[in-house]
Design a protein that fits this description.
The structure is a single chain. It is built from 21 helices and 22 strands. By secondary structure, it is of the alpha+beta class. Among the domains are: 198 residues, 2-Layer Sandwich (Aldehyde Oxidoreductase, domain 4); 189 residues, Aldehyde oxidase/xanthine dehydrogenase, molybdopterin binding domain (Aldehyde Oxidoreductase, domain 4). Helix 15 packs parallel to helix 16 and helix 15 crosses helix 18. The longest helix has 20 residues. The protein starts with 19 loop residues before the first helix and ends with a helix. It is globular. The strands form five sheets. The protein has a seven-stranded mixed sheet with strand order 3-6-1-13-10-11-12, sandwiched between helices.
Length: 668
């Protein structure tokens, strides 16, 4: 997206961030800041075993502790008719990589918030206690006695798939939940058969987890008179998805669930999926008739937060005598953990095995195995860094084998700009990119040519110095549904309601700059509204580098509904196809008195008028919901990277926008 030179505080202009004053002066509102009247506190008893049968749970001593309110186990949850966590792990469709199933289909593993029969990883919650205070809850947790029968366990995916490994799920006797493939196996095999050189790499990309500044915090309320649940918690996947999943687990309508998130103390992907504690605290709030709060401590976070990576790879690269790449093939084995929560990382990673290089043929097999570890979910680019490491390491091995400078070997095989758009051998299309130019800039900054002298000098001082180069490519798709709502308020401000989530990206500032650019309204007059399902109807959250791209498409590609319709106002004046800032601001300004009048005027009780009054009273909303299919581009879409999104041309069909005409006709 290019920098605007026309609009003050517009796209790319340096501005004072809207959120900074609040956050830097301690006026932010994080999960642990919320305190509700009569609020109780929850705690969890977690399994010390990676795999064990739960023989019995003795609640008696815990219930006699001072301040004890309740102790719940998995059998209580099931008896109340609640459901498992709706992970709904499955394969993604276009525009993501198309894969073919090998043998049986995808195997689901039901994930109950509190297991009834078995503990499947160290740190899995087995019982929930609720007390008057945090201290009371901790005291209760220490008094719960659980009788375990330890069972054979396996923690490495490569061990779980070996013959004789203990089966962890009856429906997955070989511990595999997914087995897929992509590419052309025949062409790849033929290329390897005729190759002059073949280099091999067997590696394991270790498991990691996020460590957000604020551990997970959840507060749940239940209103018995209305049957309404309210959940306060940070979620990177968006409050709309959290509401949908929570309603499923509780067995209620989505309208009975409200999800609210204010500031979020970090994410990195670990907050993007549904956690057991969401359902458990909402259920506990209903059972005891009081709000319930739980704040995860740091040790508990390391035991129970979803984790990422953990990929075992066997890969090969075939080259001819001149060092040209002929084919690449690999086998990726993902450690899913105790429950198959997502296959996103496995599938996305498979598509980028060829990196930014022209490789005529490729084939990759992807498998996901369950183990007795914390479930893994998409984390920090979800599968792409792992496979980029693999292809780049293969190239370094090939450079060593052939005696070629690693940078020179990359130059020889890198995809040139003239080949764009380029479809890689696994089927993903790269829309644009000057990969060699980017690499050359990095090499120059690192003084690649001068490194041998620096290495020799370091060796004389008794030090060992190394250098390396790698090219990274990203595919940014993610959830394609986003919604933008713009409301002209009576006091003259503009409310922008968005479904995406901020976990520190500065949405209040950057999104306001887009509205300023396209509508010409003052930057300071824009109010950003998000993170509450009472206002947000749709949205896919913030992940996969999607937030700014999704917003600009919601506002601009969908013909920037409010700008287009305001542009039909008599107050609007512009040159063809491009509204000016002053004319847009004047047109928006002309709606303010209308908003004020509709907020104060009583409409006559005429047929159809009361509905109109309810829709228009106090504000003039302009909204539109649309699912946009985004290209699976390993770079940002060209329209987003190289130029501003086109401004909509004024419509010639009517002097007034249709929604304003319908209001006028209703109240005449």
């Amino acid at each position: 997206m290019s920098v605007s030179s026309e609009v003050a505080n517009g796209i790319g202009q340096p501005v004072q961030r809207k959120e900074d004053l609040r956050l830097l002066t301690g006026r932010g509102s994080y999960g642990d800041d919320l305190v509700l009247p009569r609020m109780a506190h929850a705690g969890f008893v977690r399994s010390p075993y990676p795999h064990a049968r739960i023989r019995s749970v003795d609640k008696g001593s815990a219930l006699t502790a001072s301040g004890a309110l309740a102790v719940f186990v998995g059998a209580d949850y099931v008896a109340d008719g609640l459901g498992p966590i709706p992970h709904n792990a499955g394969l993604m469709g276009p525009p993501d990589l198309a894969v073919c199933l090998r043998g049986a289909g995808v195997i689901a593993t039901p994930h109950w918030p509190l297991p009834v029969e078995k503990a499947r990883f160290v740190g899995e919650a087995i019982a929930m206690v609720v007390g008057e205070t945090i201290a009371a809850a901790r005291d209760m947790a220490e008094r719960v006695h659980i009788d375990y029968e330890p069972l054979p366990a396996v923690v490495r995916a490569s061990d779980a798939t070996r013959p004789g490994a203990p089966p962890l799920w009856d429906k997955a006797p070989d511990n595999l939940c997914i087995d897929v493939e992509a590419g052309d196996p025949a062409a790849t095999m033929a290329a390897f058969a005729g190759a002059a050189h073949v280099v091999r790499l067997n590696t394991w990309v270790q498991r990691v987890t996020g460590a957000p500044l604020e551990p997970r915090t959840i507060i749940a309320e239940y209103d018995a008179s209305s049957g309404q649940y309210t959940l306060h918690s940070g979620t990177g996947h968006g409050v709309v998805k959290a509401r949908h999943d929570l309603a499923q687990a509780l067995g209620v309508l989505e309208e009975q669930v409200r999800v609210v998130c204010k500031e979020m103390g970090g994410n990195f992907g670990t907050r993007n999926f549904f956690y057991p504690e969401w359902a458990l605290l909402a259920w506990a709030a209903r059972r005891i008739g009081r709000p319930v709060k739980w704040t995860c401590d740091r040790s508990e976070s390391f035991l129970s937060d979803y984790q990422g990576r953990d990929l075992t790879v066997e890969a090969e690269l075939a080259l001819d005598t001149d060092g040209n790449f002929l084919a690449v093939r690999g086998s990726n084995l993902s450690n899913l953990g105790a429950y198959a929560a997502a296959f996103v990382s496995l599938q996305k990673g498979m598509g980028l095995l060829s990196g930014v290089y022209h490789i005529p043929a490729a084939y990759v097999r992807g498998r996901g195995a369950v183990t007795n570890t914390v479930p893994t979910t998409p984390y920090r680019s979800a599968g792409r860094p792992e496979v980029i490491f693999v292809i780049e390491r293969l190239i370094d091995l090939a450079a060593d084998r052939l005696g070629i400078d690693p940078a020179a070997l990359r130059r020889r095989n890198i995809i040139p700009p003239a080949a764009q758009p380029y479809t890689n051998p696994l089927g993903l299309t790269y829309d644009s990119g000057r990969y060699e130019e980017a690499m050359e800039r990095a090499l120059a900054l690192a003084d690649w040519v001068g490194f041998p002298a620096r290495r020799a000098a370091a060796r004389r001082r008794g030090r060992w110095r190394g250098i390396g180069v790698a090219n990274y490519i990203e595919v940014t798709t993610g959830s394609p549904r986003e919604r933008a709502e713009i409301t002209v308020l009576p006091e003259g401000s503009i409310a922008l309601v968005m479904g995406t989530m901020s976990s520190g990206q500065g949405h209040e500032t950057s999104f306001a700059q887009l509205v300023t650019e396209w509508l010409g309204v003052p930057f300071d007059s824009i109010l950003y509204v998000a993170h509450d399902t009472a206002r947000v109807q749709a949205g896919g959250g913030s992940h996969s580098g999607r937030s700014m791209k999704s917003l600009q498409r919601s506002l601009a590609r969908q013909r920037m509904t409010s700008s287009t319709r305001v542009a039909r106002s008599p107050a609007f004046s512009s040159r063809p196809g491009k509204p000016t800032s002053s004319s847009c601001e004047a047109a928006i300004g002309s709606l303010v008195p209308i908003a004020r009048s509709t907020s104060s005027r009583s409409l006559p009780p005429r047929s159809g008028v009361q509905t109109c009054q309810r829709n228009c009273e106090g504000r003039l909303p302009v909204s539109r919901t649309r699912s946009c299919r985004l290209r699976a581009s390993p770079t940002a879409p060209r329209s987003a990277r190289s130029r501003s999104m086109p401004r909509p041309a004024p419509s010639k069909s009517s002097a007034l926008p249709r929604w304003m005409m319908s209001v006028a006709q209703s109240i005449r």
